[in-house]
Write a structure and sequence with these properties.
seven-stranded mixed β-sheet, 40% helix, 10 helices, 268 residues, alpha/beta
């Protein structure tokens, strides 16, 4: 709660408030808390806890699954979340509009480290690249498993996520389609990744669809081999044929996507 530096005019969202120990602290520091809880017993418990107090009017309880509910407006997100929803939760937050100021969240340690992993590091993955495209992420503190009763099997970390404002001017579906292919075989060269039969078949299909939608003529004798030539020329033009995805940063992937898209190679 302290790391979120809550302001008196702000609306805070919390997921999985449980019995409300963190919720009560936030109610004292902000204008309103929106708490989303899936367990009906916890909803009842939290309602009882604020009943008849000044905090009752400041708490909005939503009974439901965070991943399925439409999110209302909020300024700050603070939560100790169920670890199994970590990845979809992060991307639902980063897709939310209007943009929030920041999120302070406790994750399983390895997941938290993936969010800030850099090119060349063992944990660097699609999650790292996608998160760093959309947000600035900062590791705040490690929380040992012995701080919990009963203790879980792994340590945790608290991270701060601040959406990039304005968001990057990139089609995220297109971006993620390319990055997904890259990290399926992150230690292979990009030439090897993009010239496998399955990838070339996908790119040929997407190329045909894009040209049909834009009413553009296809090159003569167009087939998978034509796509392979375009792919190889594109990789050579940005000097990435022998590069590996595990060594590329966000800016490198942006250059690569732009080069492919300029040649009508699409990933969605």
């Amino acid at each position: 709660v302290q790391k979120a530096a809550l302001k008196p005019h702000e609306v805070v969202m919390e997921v999985g408030p449980g019995t409300g120990n963190m919720t009560m602290k936030m109610l004292d520091a902000c204008k309103k808390v929106i708490a989303i809880e899936l367990d009906p017993r916890m909803v009842t418990e939290l309602q009882k806890r604020v009943q008849g107090s000044d905090s009752e009017k400041k708490l909005q309880l939503i009974y439901g699954d965070f991943l399925k509910v439409d999110l209302p407006y909020f300024d700050v997100f603070v939560a100790n979340i169920p670890y199994q929803i970590s990845s979809p939760l992060v991307f639902k937050l980063l897709a939310h509009r209007p943009l929030f100021r920041c999120a302070v969240i406790m994750f399983q340690e390895e997941f938290a480290q993936r969010l800030t992993a850099r090119p060349g590091e063992n944990l660097y993955c699609r999650l790292s690249v996608n998160t760093q495209l959309l947000a600035r992420v900062q590791q705040l503190m490690k929380v040992g498993k012995n701080n919990f009763r009963p203790p879980p099997k792994v340590d945790s970390r608290v991270v701060r996520i601040e959406p990039r404002n304005p968001p990057p001017p990139v089609n995220f579906v297109e971006w993620d389609g390319m990055v997904r292919l890259c990290f399926n075989r992150k230690n292979k060269t990009l030439r090897s990744v993009f010239t496998t039969k399955s990838v070339l078949n996908l790119l040929e299909k997407n190329f045909r669809t894009y040209h049909a939608l834009k009413n553009l003529p296809l090159p003569e004798t167009f087939n998978t081999n034509t796509v392979k030539i375009i792919v190889e020329e594109t990789l050579d033009s940005v000097e990435m044929s022998t590069t590996r995805s595990s060594k590329l940063d966000v800016d490198d992937f942006l250059v690569l996507l732009d080069a492919f898209n300029k040649r009508n190679i699409r990933f969605s």
